[in-house]
Amino acid sequence: MFITVEKDEQAFDKAAAARIIAQIKNKPDSVIGLSTGRTTGNMHRLVSEAYAREGFDCSHITLFGVDEVGGVPKEYSGACYTMLKTQITDNLGLVEPDNFIMLPTMSDDFERDCKAFRDELAARGGVDLMILGLGENGHLGFNQPGTPFESRAGINKMLSDLEERIRRETGTPEGQWLGGITLGLKDIMEMKRIVLVAKGSNKTAIVKEMLEGPVTEDVPASMLQNHPCCEFLLDSAAAAALTL
Length: 244
Ligand code: GLP
Fold this sequence. Notes:
Layout: E1 2-6, H1 9-26, E2 31-34, H2 41-54, E3 62-65, E4 67-70, H3 80-89, E5 100-101, H4 110-123, E6 129-132, E7 154-156, H5 160-170, E8 179-182, H6 185-189, E9 194-198, H7 204-212, E10 230-235
Parallel strand pairs: 1-10, 2-3, 2-6, 3-5, 6-9, 9-10
Antiparallel strand pairs: 4-8, 7-8
Helix pairs in contact: 1-2, 2-3
The structure holds 2-amino-2-deoxy-6-O-phosphono-alpha-D-glucopyranose.
2-amino-2-deoxy-6-O-phosphono-alpha-D-glucopyranose is lined by residues 35-39, 66-67, 133, 135, 141-142.
């Protein structure tokens, strides 16, 4: 397995940003997947700053998010669409849908739209690089523990803490559906190259399970042990319990 451990959070953010920038420079029509959350915000800002400095060509890339919050307006500040738009895609001057595509937050037929999203990625040549976040319970995207490895894009569950926060922030009443919309584990496994990113001591235990535990659907990220081209990019806090 290909594991990189950076000494601290700053070095980690810089290394992750460098993976994205190099991918864009090496293949200007790259299809690149991103994740939202605390792990990736800084790296997105570093890519934006590098673009402002150097102005490398982003006019042919596609950026997309691995997942989305279902049941909220996409303009909600916690929607993955809005997070990626403010953190990176607007800064790179990306145009929708030429350069920036997302799974829907709302739909009258999520199954149809998720299938269309997968087809769109395939039509663009497949995913060249996926920067993939890791949930504290081992989830990838919104694929919670117990999700079959064969799963395709669709609706999955949201952890209750996150759901409560989103209800509060959006004023969504109990009884009105909220959920996770996500590419499936099989979709992720078919991506050409993955960089799994994890930093901080809240990830120490799950990083050990992901890399040193058995490959099991109880820990979705353990599936990546079998991906042919996956780098595990960690900071020293996240890597602290590894014995490898
Ligand atoms: C969230 C998102 C994932 C993200 C993960 C890690 O639930 N749905 O896409 O990768 O959790 O988030 P964080 O980086 O904040 O720990």
